[in-house]
């Protein structure tokens, strides 16, 4: 067997280093999209925060005889994106307002739709407006002989998570809800602190399972390719 001279050894070492570099590039290019795809599908519930910064129900008196007195809900909904690497694309968010006339008797007050909007990375958004109550319902009637009034707010809609402006998750259903205790005299919320909405973002169980399987399978394939390149 012929002995290898220094030039042959240098060539073999250079080829081995080049092979390692190519293997690293292949592993990076293969695993990076998988990592982004996996993080988009495995978003944590704590990435979104919703709270009511303000909430009031009040009767509005008018001097116009042809226009009866009306009752409005004034609210300020605070939405926060706590992710420092992802932005959010909200679809239309449907808000439903109601109150408890009894322990098991919920009366619908009004509905409102927040139009779709984009929320940047680590950004905060406030949605505030007034909504007129359904006809035939007034704050005077709601608060009559009550020591406190328990109102309920429900939110339903969809949200998409976006990373690097190019990778987007599928639409996820988001649902949120909260009870707000109101002063029967002023109609303001009794708590001075913001009322946090409990929420859930639905995941598809098959997508979660297939994500783990797909990632683990490709990691094994890349690992074998890496070994073949290094030890060829």
Name its key features:
elongated, disordered C terminus, about 230 residues, Immunoglobulin-like, 12 strands, alpha+beta, eight-stranded antiparallel sheet, four-stranded antiparallel sheet, NDR1-like, about 30% helix
How would you describe this structure to a colleague?
Helix 1 packs antiparallel against helix 3. The protein folds into two domains: 53 residues; 159 residues, Immunoglobulin-like (Sandwich), CATH 2.60.40. The strands form two sheets. Strands 3, 4, 5, 6, 8, 9, 10 and 12 form an eight-stranded antiparallel beta sheet that branches. Strands 7-2-1-11 form a four-stranded antiparallel beta sheet, with no helix packed on it. The two termini are 20 Å apart. It is an alpha+beta fold. A hairpin with a 3-residue loop joins strand 8 and strand 9.
Could you give the topology of this structure?
Elements lengths: L5 H36 L6 E13 L9 E12 L5 E4 L2 E10 L2 E10 L2 E3 L4 E9 L6 H5 L5 E15 L3 E2 L3 E11 L12 E2 L1 E4 L3 H26 L2
Antiparallel strand pairs: 1-2, 1-11, 2-7, 3-6, 3-8, 4-5, 4-8, 8-9, 8-10, 10-12
Overall shape: it is elongated
CATH C-level label of the largest domain: Mainly Beta
**Structural class based on helices, strands and sheet pairing:** alpha+beta
| Average residue pLDDT | 77
Q: Gap between N and C termini, in Å?
A: 20 Å
**Residue fraction in strands:** 35-45%
Radius of gyration: 29 Å
Order of helices and strands: HEEEEEEEHEEEEEH
What is the count of distinct domains?
2
Fill in the CATH topology of the largest domain.
Answer: Immunoglobulin-like
Question: How many beta-strand segments?
Answer: 12
CATH architecture of the largest domain: Sandwich
Note the main sheet. 8 strands, antiparallel
Number of helical regions: 3
In helices, the fraction of residues equals 25-40%
């Amino acid at each position: 067997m012929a002995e290898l001279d220094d030039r042959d050894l240098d060539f073999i070492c250079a080829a081995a280093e080049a092979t390692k570099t190519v293997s690293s590039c292949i592993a990076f290019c293969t695993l990076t999209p998988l990592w982004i795809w996996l993080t988009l599908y495995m978003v944590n519930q704590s990435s979104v925060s919703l709270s009511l910064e303000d909430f009031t129900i009040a009767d509005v008196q008018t001097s116009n005889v042809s226009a009866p007195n009306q009752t409005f809900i004034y609210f300020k909904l605070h939405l926060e994106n706590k992710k420092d690497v992802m932005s959010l694309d909200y679809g239309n968010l449907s808000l439903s307002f109601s109150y408890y006339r009894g322990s098991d008797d919920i009366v619908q007050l009004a509905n409102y739709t927040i139009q779709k909007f984009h929320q940047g990375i680590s950004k905060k958004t406030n949605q505030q407006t007034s909504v007129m109550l359904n006809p035939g319902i007034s704050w005077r009637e709601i608060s009559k002989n009550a020591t406190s009034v328990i109102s309920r707010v429900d939110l339903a809609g969809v949200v998409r998570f976006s990373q690097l402006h190019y990778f987007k998750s599928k639409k996820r259903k988001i649902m949120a809800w909260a009870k707000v205790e109101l002063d029967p005299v002023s109609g303001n919320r009794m708590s001075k602190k913001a009322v946090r909405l409990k929420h859930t973002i639905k995941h598809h169980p098959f997508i979660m399972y297939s994500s783990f399987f797909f990632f683990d399978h490709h990691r094994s394939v890349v690992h074998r390719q890496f070994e073949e390149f290094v030890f060829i």
